[in-house]
Design goal:
It comes from Punica granatum. Keywords: Repeat. This is Pentatricopeptide repeat-containing protein At5g66520-like. The protein is mostly helical. The protein contains 38 helices and six strands. Strands 2-1-3-4-5-6 form a six-stranded mixed beta sheet, covered by helices on one side. Strand 1 and strand 2 form a beta hairpin. 45% of the residues are buried. The structure holds one DNA strand of 10 nucleotides.
Length: 723
DNA sequence: ATAGGGTTAG
């Protein structure tokens, strides 16, 4: 076809329908030497630029760089195209080039597109520069640009700046309100969002779908089911019947709002009635909502029925299992996800790492950490770093946790990260280090919270830092204004009791602003045991029985105490009462991970079905003979103050950690450190046995129980026999 | 101009 002049060219470019067609038209323009018809050229150029695939954008770039002096429309299209392809940095960099070369000045479209990209950049710097140009060139009154400026401010956390722009606007339209409400949602200011909504309806502006999507997301963190219902009602009042066709996003947002405040019945209702074709966001909301409500099975049912899953849905179910403490199943699901070919992102890795931390699965955890390093997620995500530090600490590698923590720059250290580090150090009995990390926290002006002090006080009590603990307890309320909670008192009672200040500890309990719970009495009892104070032990155990009548250990405890004071009849009655109520101690289990990364679980006295049962039995015999050689005798004092959570059988009892140890000794090389996780506190017998065995086998053994880590080495334990 | 999944303690 012969193209002779601009008019026929224009007609042709305007009928362009497919990418192939566009290539043909462009070829004809080039063949006929018609590039000088800039208006037509820019039309076909914008088709390529906005088509939305990397290849067509590449072609658009070619056309653009071959054009001698592009007009503003072409520059704007370039910026817009990069912005739509999430290439915000490139979009912003086009602006200086444009100012230097363009024959026309930037217009309002230029700034709207640019500010949109600035809003999505991590740093506010470029946006500020553009802001300056907007003022210089007199575009500030333009409502589109004002809205774009507000959007930029909100996305960069500049709430006051956004608020000022909004207040000083002579005209505020629907988009102004929507932008502000959605900005308040992003900045977690739900009350500001609500009052903006109120203001909006007072000024007669009718809200739309966008308004409610923003309002739902702003209020989803409030955990207020009454408010959720009110917002749902408002949607009806203003928009009438909303279903998937008229507002797919909005339905999803309402569902999410309900799931976040635990209203799963309402969420389910909206989900089944108004979303005939289930959207992935709504599915993810439902899955994590059920999981958060402790209904993992229901979450799983929904998950299983989805054919096309994405990373977010997988993450929802994995973290659901992890939060429910079903760590092994969480890891299984993660394996399945990998098999399906989907790539995890930061959030997925956080969920998996927390499962590893729960299991003490170091090998898997390290693999996940390497993955996050390879994907360059690490260091850019504060939560991910926290999860990694926590994983290392809970897997026994406290030095690795510290190393990683040290590499995080001050600006990226959050309260959560400090808490994970301090808590980890506390569990390893490294009280002095925990306190010095806290001093760092104070000097970097990261605000401690109640979790920080729980960790700190716990660290002090595990390391016997009595005076330090007392002064931190004061600091918490007097300087930081944090009211001590039950766990803080609990740490203090532990701390004082351990130091032999039993009367002080008892006074502490009496002067508490609330009734002491069983944990506190149990802690006092532990101190009574350590310091041999039978009288106070009786008081504590009586309180325990009163508070936890269904807890088997308390019956045993009381009956033992009564027995020592020769109150045989009473002791028998307590025992009988316990049997009649069918109370048992909870089953104990232990995990051990061997070096091939597999995790093995053992329950007390149960290994008969294990494939290595013969070897385990013989190793147990070997362990017992070595124990006898080392002069092991079961502790009789212990029985009086039986604070153990697990039922004892014989001296040769096979508590789960002993089975795990036998298995570990069988399946590891000499000198390899063995690490065992236990679901209850380790008992006195096992503790003594492990100390002796660490020497007898010349092995370092690490046991993580519910309270802390025990590092057994050369006949001694890092807990110095207090736990 | 729109939605969904995450970390610390007890």
């Amino acid at each position: 076809m012969q193209l002779r002049e601009g008019r026929s060219l224009l007609l042709l470019t305007e009928t362009c329908k497919s990418l192939r067609h566009a290539y043909q038209i462009h070829a004809q323009i080039v063949v006929n030497g018609l590039q000088r018809h800039l208006y037509s050229l820019s039309k076909i150029f914008s088709f390529f630029a906005l088509f939305g695939c990397p290849e067509s954008l590449g072609h658009a770039r070619l056309i653009f760089s071959g054009t001698k002096s592009p007009n503003v429309f072409m520059w704007n299209t370039m910026i817009r195209a990069h912005s739509l392809s999430e290439l915000h940095h490139e979009a912003v960099l086009l602006y200086p080039a444009m100012v230097a070369k363009a024959r026309d000045l930037p217009n309002n479209f230029t700034f709207t597109f640019l500010l949109n990209s600035c809003a999505r950049l991590a740093a506010p710097g470029p946006g500020f520069q553009i802001y300056g140009h907007v003022i210089k060139l007199g575009f500030e009154p333009d409502i589109f640009i004002r809205n774009a400026l507000m959007h930029f401010c909100c996305s960069s956390g500049l709430a006051d700046c956004a608020r000022k722009l909004f207040e000083e606007s002579s005209a505020r339209d629907l988009v102004s309100y929507n932008t502000m409400i959605s900005g308040m949602a992003q900045m977690c200011k739900p009350h500001a969002a609500l009052s903006l909504f109120q203001e909006m309806s007072d000024s007669g502006i009718w809200p739309d779908e966008f308004t409610f999507v923003a309002l739902c997301s702003a209020c989803s963190g409030l955990n207020d089911h009454g408010l959720a219902k009110q917002i749902h009602n408002l949607v009806y009042r203003y928009l009438g019947f909303v279903d998937c066709s008229s507002g797919a996003h909005l339905v999803g947002s309402v569902i999410d709002l309900y799931t976040k405040c635990g209203e799963m019945d309402m969420a389910r209702k909206v989900f089944s009635a108004f979303q005939p074709v289930k959207s992935l966001p709504a599915l993810s909301s439902m899955v994590s909502g059920y999981a958060r409500a402790g209904k993992v099975e229901l979450a799983r049912q929904i998950f299983d029925r989805v054919n096309k899953r994405d990373t977010i849905l997988w993450t929802a179910i994995i973290s659901g299992y992890s939060q429910a403490g079903r760590y092994d199943e969480a890891l299984e699901l993660y394996k399945e996800m990998e098999k399906s070919g989907l790539k995890p992102d930061q959030v997925t890795l956080v969920a998996v790492l927390s499962a590893c931390a729960g299991l003490g699965a170091l090998t898997v955890g390290e693999r996940i950490n390497n993955q996050s390093l390879r994907a360059r997620f690490f260091g850019r995500d504060a939560i991910l770093v926290t999860a990694v530090v926590d994983m290392y600490a809970k897997c026994g590698k406290i030095e690795s946790a510290l190393e990683i923590f040290r590499d995080v720059p001050d600006s990226q250290r959050t309260t959560h990260l400090f808490n994970a580090m301090i808590t980890g150090l506390a569990q390893h009995g490294l009280g002095e280090t925990a306190v010095s990390v806290f001093r760092e926290m104070e000097s970097t002006k990261v605000r401690p919270d109640e979790v920080t002090f729980t960790g700190l006080l716990c660290a002090c009590s595990h390391s016997g830092l009595v005076e330090e603990g007392r002064s931190l307890f004061k600091l918490m309320s007097e300087f930081y204004g944090i009211n001590p909670q039950m766990q803080h008192y609990c740490c203090m009672v532990d701390l004082l009791g351990r130091d032999g200040k039993l009367d002080d500890a008892h006074d502490f309990i009496r002067t508490m602003p609330f009734e002491a719970n069983s944990v506190i009495w149990r802690s006092l009892l532990g101190s009574c045991k350590l310091h041999g104070n039978v009288e106070m032990g009786k008081i504590a155990s009586a309180k325990l029985l009163e508070l936890e009548p269904d807890h088997g250990a308390r019956y045993v405890l009381l009956s033992n105490i009564l027995a020592t004071t020769k109150q045989w009849e009473e002791a028998g009655r307590v025992r009988k009462g316990m049997e009649q109520r069918g109370i048992q101690k909870p089953p104990g289990w232990s995990y051990i991970e061997i070096s091939n990364g597999t995790v093995h679980q053992f329950t007390a006295s149960n290994y008969r079905s294990h494939p290595q049962k013969e070897e385990i039995a013989s190793k147990l015999r070997d362990m017992n003979s070595r124990l006898r050689t080392a002069g092991y005798a079961p502790s009789t004092v212990d029985v009086v103050f039986d604070v153990d959570e697990e039922e004892k059988e014989t001296i040769v009892s096979h508590h789960s950690e002993k089975l795990a140890l036998a298995f570990g000794l069988l399946n590891s090389g000499p000198g390899e450190v063995l690490q065992i996780m236990k679901n209850l506190r380790i008992c006195g017998d096992c503790h003594l046995a492990f100390k002796l065995l660490s020497k007898a086998y010349a092995r370092e053994i690490i046991v993580r129980d519910t309270a802390r880590f025990h590092h057994f080495r050369n006949g001694l334990c890092s807990c110095k026999d207090f736990w």
